[in-house]
Amino acid sequence: MKTIIIPTDFSPAAINAMNYGVDMALAVNASILLLHVYNIPVSYGDVPVALLSVDELKKTADDAIDRVKKDLEHITSGKLQITTETRLGNIVDELEEECKKIQPFAVVMGTTGSSAVERTLFGSTTLTAIKHLTWPVICVPKGKEYGKGIRKIGLACDFREVAQTTPVSEIKEFVKEFHAQLFVLNVDHDNQQFRRDTPEQSAILHTALEEVHPEFHFITHRDIEDGINEFAEKNGLDLVIAIPKKHKLLEGIFKKSSTSQLVFESHVPVMCVHE
Fold first, then answer.
1. Closest CA to 187 of 124, 126, 242, 144
2. What is the domain range of residue 130?
3. What is the pLDDT of residues 52-90, one digit of tens each?
4. CB–CB of 152/185 below 8 Å?
5. How far is 84 from 18, CA to CA, in rounded Å?
6. 194: which residues sit within 8 A by CB, 6+ positions away?
7. Residue 156 and residue 268 in one domain
8. Each residue of 12-54: pLDDT tens digit?
9. Residues 101 and 181 in one domain
10. Are residue 46 and residue 16 in the same domain, yes or no?
């Protein structure tokens, strides 16, 4: 059975992503693993911290995740197989260990919360996970619901060495799993003519993805994030796939400029798949 790993720190951003992941798991007949990683508190300056033993920290974590599990079991009427794991350590390191062991269908995480602290800490954790994990990571913006599912998927592509850098098998598998329509998106972010090798590279990618019937769209826009966001809004995309090492899209998505936040404000989740 497929497994979706959902890391949680019980914040609103994490709970929102958990709800999204649960609905996805039900849609694709997958189980879920709820993972909570806790740390030993440290003091900052003159601010004291509660003195708790490691055993007390673990009990608190176990109790919290057990409550969440029971709530989910009640909401899903027992239709979903749910396992839980609590660990002491670094969230990304522990998440990577779980991924190696389980080989998940995907990791579903929140992006940023409503407070400045959530935006800094939770957003930073998600970005670090994207950079280090080789499994698909789905970043769920605040307030995003799974709704009617994933029916339209956009693949952000720069048409450079597509045969070497595009995880074609993973993309096709995901598109087939959801019976989705695939849109391949190329944004001319320099607002200049496309390179000479663009037709050749697009033809190679079209052949590789032919069985999922992709549509190719060439978008003229000086900003990659804006161009993709506008297309996503206009065409009702449910998910955007990005390849982290292939272009600088992720840096734009997670920086705090008004442009980068447009992807979040439009409530379009981003799935990151490595080369």
1. 242
2. 3-140
3. 678 888 999 999 999 999 999 999 998 999 999 999 999
4. no
5. 13
6. 159, 186, 188, 218
7. yes
8. 889 999 999 999 999 999 999 999 998 876 555 555 555 667 8
9. no
10. yes
